[in-house]
Automatic annotation (TrEMBL):
GO molecular function: DNA binding; histone binding; nucleosome binding
Protein name: Transcription elongation factor Spt6
Provenance organism: Pisolithus microcarpus 441
InterPro entries per record: HHH_9, NA-bd_OB-fold, RNaseH-like_sf, RuvA_2-like, S1_domain, SH2, SH2_dom_sf, Spt6-like_S1
GO annotation (BP), single: nucleosome organization
GO cellular component: chromosome; transcription elongation factor complex
Pfam families registered for this protein in UniProt: HHH_7, HHH_9, HTH_44, SH2_2, SPT6_acidic, Spt6_S1, Tex_central_region, YqgF
Gene3D superfamilies: Nucleic acid-binding proteins (2.40.50.140), RuvA domain 2-like (1.10.10.650), SH2 domain (3.30.505.10), Spt6, Death-like domain (1.10.10.2740), Spt6, helix-hairpin-helix domain (1.10.150.850), Tex N-terminal region-like (1.10.3500.10), YqgF/RNase H-like domain (3.30.420.140)
Record-annotated S1 motif domain positions: 1104-1178
Family classification: Belongs to the SPT6 family.
Length: 1408
């Protein structure tokens, strides 16, 4: 074998070569012919170069001489002479062995077939067979090469060649081959005929060989040039384009695989098909044997409502729980075995996910809704991943070649979550650490690829491993029960394992394991600690305990938030994070309904807060007691108690070091996933509200009609810069005209606008823009349409009656539509490609018009940019983009398949074509491939059969997509008649939602409705009867007379086909094919229009807010017209100018002045395009401030004490920085204390004692702190007001005092006396409020016929009381607040003089 020039591999010459090399190294041999050999090599290179040139020239000549197949056909047609099997001259046969480059390229051409070829791979040879073709060519030039020369027969006699038919020519060819073989045999015996016998030939062969020993050298001479050509790499598009460009154009190998596979595209992707980085999913589908287990697993996790309604004892649908499980199994089978997408199942297989009972055929219960069907799809994907990982775990366990009864009998049946798979893997790895490490290297499709298989040794050995390998493991066995037995006791109700009690106490038992020879001193306590660590670790890593703690966290966990030092200063009352700044003990179940937790995580990432998730003390104690009971001994001896104490320490360590951290970490991620999913689903529902609507329709428009739209915009509304731009789209969405005019005031421009309306006659006018000036444009357009003048219109004289301005009146509605998509479109690459000559505002108008014609198409055309649309202003940015894309894509897929796509229109309309990838079964790749294939057929389809007959779609894709791809009926074509079933003619059923697999049912229903027999329709097109029933004027009555219930029962009894819902769909489609199922086009609400044009929301224009406005003008009636920063017009009436009244506004304001004003009212009149805000500049309104309105609401679970402590700390720091001079007041009760110091000072004082101190609110404030009860102090804010009669100390409007003594006596001590009086009452209960609740419950339990009430101090509001009462034993304890003032008690702000009156007031209010 020759690998190259001058390279040999001869085993016979190996020894000689070694000796020769040795002599050369020692210098015994000197090569004297080196120069001669170099010259020979140069000559050889020149000869090879010439040979390459000759081969290239000959190849070019042959290519030029070769006739194309079309040319041959043309010659034959014109001359009548066959040219295909006729050669004018005999050409030299080429060597059968192809050069490497050409052979590899030829193999590539065969192996890398096109998409069309891959659809019919049964007819293709296998790849190895194709490769063998070229291997045989390279094998040598035997008889096959010589027989190939027979193809080069020269038919010199044209008449003979042309006059013979094919059979005669074949006989002539066989005769010539026979003669040729005889000639070869004769030539093979020449050596015998020449007188040389066989023995002589053998001797010649032994001496000279057979002449082929040096073929490798000859081959090398001729093949070097070919090798050089072969080494040139073949140019690929990967060598030209950047990888990012290849991915964007979907030309990667994964994209090719997705295009070719007969699996719906979205099912092949692990991400959204909109995503720019979509990845291929490598999951294996479920099998039929997995469906039952999958159905049970999915049903239990479907939703809390489903569990409550179907599986609780008092659930309203408990009788249908088996039907629900069956429906889920059908859905999973359709999704993961038969590979049908959700819209297909919802539309064509609804009977299988609804309740169906032939005996109760009229009972209609939708067991699974559309959102729940998507939920089943998600849960099925999770279960599929679980099965894959669980199988990998079981395979790893089998490789251990061991039998573990606990794993096989206890763990294995309970592994039903991915977390348990990971826990079990870790548990096996820990238990069988000494076994081969590779056993536990589980890798899945979504794991990162490991490039280096070299194992890095562990940097350190854990304390558990060290202890486990020492004698301490024997000490751990002395606890009398193994960890997995403890777990079995924990999960079992009958406690199958018992503890073996020791005869020695723990310390004495541990002394037996002390090693006196050890260099490190070991005490029994230390040995016990390490043995407890072994048991705690094994308990903490047990999968069942971990799963139990996760389930407990899911139900019982609470969350608290503590601000960091940075967060305390940065998060003030107006910060959006203030809502949860001091969140305290909030149940985790209440975090699922809002995006609060995502905001908490965002604040944590900004280092503003610290988040803690934990179990309640009750839940943790319950779990700990249960685990202790499973671990403890039942004996009562002192030794058993001592061992139980050690076991309790093990349980405590397992909880604190292992189980609680695991539960906390999991709960955090689980909660984040749940909230993200819920928020993404909410954004999806918002999108559904916007796109699941029909195009705008006038009162007299026909169903399914798309309106012609005139879109008009003034841009930002600047008269000096912005012109009015108009674009009109016809009913097919084509841009017919775009116009730009300066204004609608000048008569010439008005006439031009009116002329456009007369010529185009739009069905609707859509107005949009970027400022509040758009409302003026809308009002002017409405005025022109109605033929009246606009207020202040200079084009109309004052004496002219406004109702007769225009003779022409147009009945065209003027509306606003959402412009968020149009704003994106005007600057998009898509707009630049479609309308390169239009201005951005004109493109914006096109977007507005398209939205009015088809909101679905507009959102679908956005692709991945749809995430730029805001569906949740405050929370959407917290959702991962990929998760949001998936949720939005599902909604687009649902609505698109609900509407259907006209395939022929998609071929001609690139804008409409954006809907095609959303069709069930398709996607961007498959849709593009389908468009290309249809284009090769002429760009138009006649019927749905062509999808299969022409190889446009594979089987599964056709089944998924066929019912949603419409081919409308041509009204000019008469109904199909006298057509055979195999004709490629139109089928009226192709214009309906009816799936091709149900065509026979539709034809049967049409035949029965028309009361025809088979003889009546014999020989006609199968769907001829469908055309007849569709065109029948009385078709609705005839179809309604059919007994579809009986028909459905018969079908079920015959073939177990469930078709009740399908039959209803068929009837509806025969009456109204692809009828509009979407809701009407919604009109925008006034606040939505205001937000779109100005950005203001009800929150930013809330009544009571103080805003900055600009004075625009002062009217004659003293009304001040202003303008807000957002462009909205404001109005200040004389009543709201000043509190003094009778003030001229010109004396207060001037034009262009910026003033502060309070929002009084927002006036919105959308029909009149009037948006105005009523404002007030009265000092009484401004001095109150708007802090109450701007302040962020606290969460109900608020840590008030911590909040007040931090406030005090901040105030103290602020005082230390800004107020270095201490205030001094000459009074015995005055101290320079802060709140904490005052409380510490009063801690040892009597109740009612007072401290007066400086206030952090400023120099005009004082703080009074008095002791209400032990560890309970009230802080009173006192304001110093300077009046002409002297300073006044004001607590509030009703309580004002001349000096501090009067304040102490008449206010503080008066309140203290009231507090003492109530605390001395028999109904008062000392201690926390929970103790009062317990006392009331015990009293009512002992006296069921009575109710009870009592008082206790309000610890959250010092100086206040809580009145708690219990009406009966079945009621809950109610709490009412009681406020104490110097004169009275206030129950719900109703004052009473004393405690008896307070009790009477409570009883009266309670009875009423």
């Amino acid at each position: 074998m020759a690998d190259g020039v001058g390279v040999t591999d001869s085993s016979e010459e190996g020894e000689d070569d070694e000796e020769e090399e040795k002599r050369i190294r020692e210098g015994f041999i000197v090569d004297e012919d080196e120069e001669v050999e170099e010259e020979d090599e140069e000559e050889e290179r020149q000869r090879r170069k010439k040979r390459r040139k000759r081969r290239h020239r000959r190849r070019v000549e042959e290519e030029e001489e070769a006739l194309e197949e079309d040319d041959l056909e043309l010659l034959e047609e014109n001359t009548g002479t066959p040219f295909r099997n006729r050669l004018t001259r005999l050409r030299r046969g080429r060597d059968g062995r192809s050069p490497p480059a050409s052979s590899s390229s030829r193999r590539k051409q065969v192996v890398e077939s096109s998409e069309d070829d891959l659809d019919d791979d049964e007819d293709l040879p296998q790849v190895q067979d194709i490769q063998r073709i070229w291997d045989d060519e390279r094998a040598g030039r035997g008889q096959e090469d010589e027989e190939d020369m027979d193809d080069f027969i020269d038919y010199e006699d044209e008449e003979e060649a042309g006059g013979l038919d094919e059979q005669e020519r074949e006989e002539r060819r066989r005769e010539r081959k026979k003669l040729e073989r005889q000639r070869r045999r004769a030539m093979g015996s020449i050596h015998e005929l020449s007188g040389i016998d066989a023995g002589a030939w053998d001797e010649i062969h032994d001496v000279f060989g057979d002449g082929h020993e040096y073929d490798w050298a000859l081959a090398g001479d001729t093949e070097v040039g070919l090798d050089e050509e072969a080494q040139k790499p073949e140019m690929k598009y990967q060598d030209v384009f950047e990888p990012s460009e290849i991915r964007a154009r979907m030309l990667t190998e994964d994209d090719d695989l997705i295009r070719v596979q007969d699996i719906p595209e979205r099912m092949q992707l692990a991400t959204s098909s909109f995503s720019q980085s979509s990845t291929l999913s490598l999951h294996q589908n479920l099998t039929e044997s997995d469906i039952d287990d999958a159905a049970a697993w999915v049903t239990s996790r479907l939703s809390a409502r489903k569990t409550r309604d179907f599986f609780s004892d008092n659930g309203p649908y408990r009788a249908y729980r088996d039907a629900l499980v069956l429906a889920v199994s059908y859905a999973l089978r359709f999704l993961f075995v038969q590979e049908f997408e959700v819209p297909y199942i919802w539309t064509h297989k609804r009977d299988y996910i609804s309740y169906f009972n032939p005996q109760e055929i009229r009972t209609r219960i939708d067991l699974i809704s559309l959102p729940e069907l998507w939920r089943i799809h998600v849960l099925g994907q999770k279960y599929r991943s679980l099965v894959e990982r669980r199988n990998a775990l079981f395979a790893a366990y089998s490789r251990l070649n061991t039998e573990d009864d606990y794993f096989e009998q206890t763990l294995k049946p309970k592994i039903d979550t991915v977390e348990m798979v990971a826990d079990s893997t870790e548990w096996l790895s820990m238990k069988y650490k000494s076994r081969k490490q590779d056993t536990f290297d589980l890798h899945f499709h979504d794991d990162e690829e490991i490039t280096d298989r070299k194992r890095k040794p562990p940097s350190r050995v854990s304390a558990y491993e060290i202890a486990k390998k020492s004698v301490i493991s024997k000490l751990a066995e002395g606890f009398g029960i193994r960890p997995h037995e403890v777990v079995q006791n924990f999960i079992s109700s009958d406690r199958p394992n018992f503890v073996e009690d020791q005869e020695l106490n723990p310390t004495t038992f541990a002394e037996q394991f002390v090693n006196p020879d050890s260099l490190i001193s070991q005490t029994p306590a230390e040995l016990l600690r390490r043995s407890r660590m072994i048991l705690a670790t094994e308990l903490g890593k047990d999968p069942l305990l971990r799963q139990t703690i996760r389930d407990l966290f899911k139900v019982e966990a609470q969350i608290s938030v503590q601000p960091t030092e940075r967060g305390i200063n940065k998060i003030d009352e107006h910060h959006p994070y203030f809502n949860f700044k001091y969140l305290h003990h909030k149940p985790i179940g209440q975090m699922l309904d809002s995006a609060q937790f995502l905001h908490i995580l965002a604040a944590e990432s900004e280092h503003l807060v610290n988040v803690s998730i934990y179990l309640t003390n009750e839940a943790k104690g319950r779990f700990e007691r249960r685990l202790n009971d499973a671990f403890a001994s039942d004996s009562y001896s002192d030794i058993a108690k001592a061992w139980n104490e050690e076991r309790s320490r093990v349980v405590q360590e397992a909880l604190d070091q292992h189980l609680i951290p695991i539960g906390t970490k999991w709960c955090r991620e689980w909660l984040r996933e749940e909230v993200e999913d819920a928020l993404a689903a909410h954004c999806g529902s918002k999108l559904r509200e916007r796109i699941d609507v029909a195009p705008f329709a006038t009162a007299d428009s026909q169903p399914g009609y798309s309106p012609s739209v005139l879109a008009i915009s003034w841009g930002k509304g600047d008269p000096q810069k912005d012109a009015i731009t108009m674009a009109i789209l016809d009913d097919m969405g084509r841009l017919r005209e775009h116009v730009k005019i300066d204004n609608l005031v000048d008569q010439d421009y008005r006439d031009e606008f009116i002329d456009l309306l007369k010529r185009r006659r739009p069905d609707v006018i859509v107005v949009g823009g970027f400022s509040m000036a758009t409302t003026k444009l809308s009002a002017r357009v409405k005025a022109i349409l109605s033929g009246r003048a606009v207020e202040g219109d200079p084009a109309v004289p004052e004496w002219h009656p406004p109702e007769n301005v225009n003779e022409q009146v147009f009945d065209i509605p003027v509306i606003y539509v959402r412009d968020e998509v149009a704003r994106i479109y005007q600057h998009s690459k898509r707009a630049a490609e479609e309308f390169s000559t239009l201005s951005p505002i004109a493109k914006y108008c096109v977007g507005l018009a398209r939205y009015a014609q088809n909101p679905l198409n507009e959102y679908a055309a956005l692709g991945a940019d749809i995430t730029a649309i805001s569906f949740e202003d405050e929370d959407q940015h917290l959702i991962p983009k990929e998760k949001l894309l998936i949720a939005l894509e599902r909604v687009l897929v649902d609505v698109t398949n609900k509407v259907g796509v006209e395939i022929n229109r998609a071929m001609t309309d690139s804008y409409y074509q954006h809907l095609l990838p959303l069709v069930c079964g398709l996607g961007p790749r498959k849709a593009n491939a389908l468009v290309r294939k249809i284009a090769t057929l002429g760009g138009n389809l006649v019927n749905r059969d062509q999808f299969i007959k022409s190889g446009l779609l594979t089987t599964k894709i056709f089944l998924n997509a066929a019912g949603f791809l419409r081919i409308p009926r041509d009204s000019d074509v008469k109904s199909a008649k006298n057509r055979h079933a195999d004709d490629d003619g139109p089928d009226p059923l192709d214009a309906t939602r009816i799936h091709p697999e149900d065509y026979e049912l539709a034809r049967k229903m049409a035949t029965d409705a028309l009361e025809l027999d088979e003889e009546d329709i014999h020989g006609e097109h199968p769907s001829h009867v469908v055309s007849l029933i569709m065109d029948d004027n009385d078709n609705e009555r005839k179809l309604n007379e059919l007994n579809l219930d009986e028909f459905a029962v018969n079908m079920f009894e015959a073939n177990e086909d469930r078709k009740r819902h399908t039959l209803n769909v068929i009837r509806e489609e025969l009456l109204k094919p692809f009828a509009e199922h979407r809701g009407p086009f919604p009109a925008l609400q006034p606040w939505e229009v205001l937000t779109m044009l100005s950005g203001e929301t009800p929150r930013t224009l809330r009544t009571g807010l103080i805003i900055s406005v600009l004075i625009v003008r002062i009217e004659m009636n003293d009304t001040v017209i202003t303008r807000l920063d957002s462009g909205i017009e404001g109005m200040i009436t004389p009543d709201y100018l000043s509190a003094q009244g009778n003030v001229r506004p010109k004396s207060m304001f001037k034009k262009g002045q910026a003033v502060q004003a309070v929002v009084v009212e927002v006036n919105l009149d959308l029909p009149m395009d009037h948006f105005q805000v009523t404002l007030s500049t009265r000092s009484i309104d401004l001095t109150q401030g708007d802090g109450l309105f701007r302040r962020v609401k606290r969460d109900d679970y608020w840590n008030t004490q911590q909040y007040e402590r931090d406030l005090e700390m901040q105030a103290r720091k602020k005082r230390a920085e800004t107020d270095r001079t201490r205030r001094v007041i000459k009074h015995p009760n005055f101290h320079n204390f802060n709140a904490a110091q005052a409380e510490n000072f009063l801690e040892k004082q009597q109740r009612g004692d007072v401290v007066i101190r400086p206030s952090s609110k400023g120099v005009d404030h004082l703080a009074v702190t008095w002791k209400v009860d032990d560890k309970l102090y009230q802080h009173i804010d006192v304001t110093e007001i300077n009046t002409p009669n002297g300073p006044i100390l004001a607590v509030d409007d009703k309580h004002q005092y001349a000096d501090l003594d009067e304040l102490i006596v008449n206010h503080v001590q008066a309140i203290a006396r009231k507090v003492e009086e109530l605390m001395a009452h028999e109904k008062f209960k000392h201690g926390p409020e929970d103790e009062l609740h317990l006392s009331l419950k015990n009293f009512v339990a002992a006296n069921p016929a009575k109710s009870a009430y009592g008082f206790t101090l309000n610890r959250r509001k010092p100086g206040h009381f809580n009145l708690c009462f219990l009406a009966n034993k079945n009621a809950t304890v109610q709490t009412w607040p009681v406020r104490v003032t110097p004169e009275s008690y206030c129950l719900f702000e109703a004052p009473v003089a004393g405690v008896p009156e307070l009790c009477d007031a409570f009883k009266v209010r309670c009875v009423s």
